[in-house]
Design brief:
Belongs to the triosephosphate isomerase family. Its main location: cytoplasm. The protein is α/β, with parallel strands linked by helices and about 250 residues long. The chain has a domain of about 120 residues: Aldolase class I (TIM Barrel, Alpha-Beta Barrel). About 40% of the residues lie in helices and about 15% in strands. It has an eight-stranded parallel beta barrel with strand order 1-2-3-4-5-6-7-8, surrounded by six helices. It is globular. It starts with 8 loop residues before the first strand and ends in a 6-residue tail after the last helix. The structure holds glyceraldehyde-3-phosphate. The site of glyceraldehyde-3-phosphate has 14 residues, from strand 8.
Length: about 250
């Protein structure tokens, strides 16, 4: 059966990096993309403190601005947290949910991840829902089972291709310079695709990103793997030149 054409997305996750001076990188990226548009959507997810300014800088451009987390409630007495409607109110388009760093640093489990994704959907945001195995789980041969279980527990029943994006990020590949063999990525993305297709009417059109040490030098190879519909990029997204070079994977 032929696969539906899926517009890829390359999203940059700045994590807890970036003072106001880093906004210059977004200005530069805007100019680079205008001069040489890629055949992919592009998003930057800066820290909360830079979101408002980043949205102003990217107005009318091809760059969407995302956030890195949201609370599961629309509002409430939750000191220090940010609600999805607050992000939507700023003009945020995507929100990363369930990144492994939040699962580890903040003890976020699948049910909370699903509740946050539901909150994002309710606010009209697209949820980038992250899954991925640890090295011990991969070495134990459990990677596929772990990821499918995370999808089962984290992706809401009302997910669809417009409101949800899956990011497969092997924990051991994040920030390490290590990436899985392309055969292993292909096997995982095929398994995720099968899962989505079985569970959701438009699961064949939902984007599945790969994340974990995506760099300019390996992006072409990683992005050419079947069912890899873009990337979630950490470190290399902090430099507009590197991020733009990753987007070359989607330029002729
Ligand atoms: O969200 C992004 C991922 O954690 C990947 O980070 P990285 O590209 O620095 O390995």
């Amino acid at each position: 059966m032929s696969q539906p054409a899926i517009r890829p997305l390359v999203a940059g996750n700045w994590k807890m990096f970036g003072l106001r001076s880093a906004l210059a990188q977004i200005e530069r990226l805007r100019a680079l993309l205008a001069a040489n548009p890629p055949g992919a959507d592009c998003a930057i997810c800066p820290p909360f403190t830079l979101i408002d300014a980043a949205i102003k800088i990217t107005a009318g451009s091809a760059i969407a601005i995302g956030a890195q987390d949201c609370h599961s409630a629309d509002e409430g007495a939750h000191t220090g947290d940010i609600a999805a409607p607050m992000l939507a109110d700023l003009g945020v388009r995507h929100v990363i949910i369930g990144h492994s760093e939040r699962r580890t640093d903040h003890g976020e489990g699948d049910s909370l991840v699903m509740a946050k994704a539901c909150a994002a959907h309710k606010a009209g945001l697209s949820a980038i829902i992250c899954v991925g195995e640890t090295l011990a789980q991969r070495d134990a041969g459990a990677a596929l089972d772990i990821v499918i279980k995370q999808l089962e527990g984290s992706v809401p029943a009302k997910a669809n291709a417009a409101n949800s994006i899956i990011a497969y990020e092997p924990v051991w590949a994040i920030g390490t310079g290590r990436t899985p063999q392309t055969d292993d990525i292909a096997q995982m993305h095929q398994a995720i695709r099968s899962y989505l297709t079985n569970r959701f009417e438009d699961g064949g059109s939902m984007r599945i990103l790969y994340g974990g040490s995506v760099k300019p030098k390996n992006a072409g190879e990683l992005m050419s793997v079947a069912h890899v519909n873009g990337a979630l990029v950490g470190g290399a997204s902090l430099d507009s030149g590197d991020f733009n070079a990753i987007l070359d994977a989607y330029r002729r």
